[in-house]
Amino acid sequence: MTSLPERAGRRCHNVLNPLHSTHYFSPDLGRELAAVGIDDDRGAYFAARAAAMGAVGPGTVTATFYNFSHELVSGHVPGVWRSASPETVLAARVRAVDTTLRRLLGEELIAAKEMAEAAELALRATEACVRTARPLYAAHADLPVPEEPHLALWHAATLLREHRGDGHLAVLLGAELDPVEALVSHTATGRGMAPRWALATRGWTRADWEAAVARLRGRGLLDAEGELTEAGVALRATIEADTDRLDRAPYEHLGAAGVERLTELAKAVLTTALTNGAFPEGMIGKD
Asked: Are 186 and 278 spatial neighbours (Cβ–Cβ below 8 Å)?
């Protein structure tokens, strides 16, 4: 095993994960899925992310996505599969990713040797990912690797994101944070989704949010103003550290120099995407 600098894997994840996520906020995904019969944003998201698992039911989606209400999920799943098969959705998703990345990054960066280098490094990291108890990762790992470097980088970023995410859910369960409590406590760090975004996209009500706040206060994790207490800060730090521990294998496999280079390359790509409006303003924060 290679000794990595502290949080090196997390820093790499933090620039790869947004690259994966760009298509969820892109009009291209909505257009591609509307063309195959899935014409609402929430249904498009559930279909695009779940399709690798096949025509699963709402219970599987709720379990693997964690912080969405089951009522919201069941309003779209399994209905999306009656509109388009998982195979059709996966093909539409790749088309949307291709269009989105070309628009956000430009053809010069798409064709650059650095793009191919980043894809090679990211794919090498995925060689050490494991399927055990990681359903979303395992499903995506069964998909073919795209040939074009920008799509191969996105595919590798998807594998690394879902691998870390599956482990993160195990850590949240261990911390005894239910889906809304996980959202509230993450938002309280200042690095999570703003409450209005969480409520608009995850299917929870303001009453659900306030009830979770009350439960976290009862555990001594939030203060009267809704800020994390010392215990709350410590819990969130432990959650991230434990997630890092469960996710260390890909980055140990890549090695310190490889992780540093992949982080550098992916950060440059992400910076270009952000400059070109990859994500809505005001999505992250406490308000």
From this structure: no
Bridge partners, 228 (sequence order): 222
Four-residue CA torsion sign, 235, 172, 50, 71: negative
Cα distances (Å, whole numbers) of residue 127 to 100, 160, 180, 226, 250:
26, 10, 33, 41, 7
Of the chain, the percentage scoring pLDDT greater than 70 comes to 99
- The 10 Å CB-count burial string (b at 16+, else e) for 30-58 is bebbbebebeebbbbbbbbbbbbbebbeb
pLDDT digits (tens, 9 = 90+) for 81-116: 999 999 999 999 999 999 999 999 999 999 999 999
Strand ranges for the chain from DSSP E: none
Omega of the bond prior to 27 within 30 degrees of 0, cis? no
User: Which pLDDT band, with edges at 50, 70 and 90, does 2 fall under?
Assistant: low
Please, what is the angle between helix 113-126 and helix 256-275, to 10°?
130
Task: Write the Ramachandran bin of 87: left for phi over 0, alpha for psi from -120 to 50, otherwise beta.
Answer: alpha
Cα–Cα distance for residue pair 183/204, rounded to 1 Å: 10
pLDDT digits 0-9 by tens, 197-211 = 999 999 999 999 999
* In contact, 62 and 73? CB cutoff 8 Å: yes
pLDDT in tens, 110-124: 999 999 999 999 999
Tokens representing 173?
């369960």
Of 228, 227, 217, 234, the closest CA to residue 175 belongs to 234
- Provide the whole-model pTM: 0.96
Cis preceding linkage at 78, omega within 30? yes
